[in-house]
Amino acid sequence: MQISRNRNAGVVALEFIFILPLLIGLLYGALVYGLLFFHKLEMQQVVDRASSSVFFLDRRQHQTFSDEVVAHSKASLGKLVAGLPTRLRTRLSEQVCENVSSGGVDMLECRLSADGTKPFLPQLKLGFLGSFPPQPAELSVTAAVAF
């Protein structure tokens, strides 16, 4: 009986050795994608706030209201981007607020894009299999309001 028990212990250790890298990879992948989704959420909140900040403007006080809307939203976007974490703010490749016409309706559209050519978090190089976990080439968000 004692010999059989030692043999099973070796099998359990061998299974553990095979399963541990998969478990660590799964946990690391979940961490990376969780942080990427959090980065995108932070960016989305910034463009949402910048685009909705124009609702506080009074149309009667401005002759060229669309120009004032763009200027106000650009200023708001700049202030809000300054509040983003450095790890994200330094990667921004596009930071735009502009007028867009869609079906005869003037809209303000604010966009942010973060460059992902360099991975957002460290990746594991797996030889011919590539890098793990795969990360996007760009994170981009858009918010639009009609005025």
Global shape: rod-shaped
Task: Count the beta strands.
Answer: 5
Poorly predicted regions are none
Strand order of the largest sheet: 1-2-5
Number of helices: 3
Sequence of secondary-structure elements:
HHHEEEEE
Structural class: alpha+beta
State the separation between the terminal residues, measured CA to CA: 82 Å
Could you please describe the fold and organization of this structure?
The chain is an alpha+beta fold and 147 residues long. Strands 1-2-5 form a three-stranded antiparallel sheet, with helices on one face. A hairpin with a 5-residue loop joins strand 3 (124-125) and strand 4 (131-132). The radius of gyration is 25 Å and the shape is rod-shaped. It has three helices and five strands. It has one domain (38-146). It has helices at residues 2-52, 65-82, 86-89; strands spanning 92-102, 105-115, 124-125, 131-132, 138-146. 50% of the residues lie in helices and 24% in strands. The mean pLDDT is 88. Helix 1 (2-52) packs antiparallel against helix 2 (65-82).
List the helices and strands and how they pair.
Layout: H1 2-52, H2 65-82, H3 86-89, E1 92-102, E2 105-115, E3 124-125, E4 131-132, E5 138-146
Antiparallel strand pairs: 1-2, 2-5, 3-4
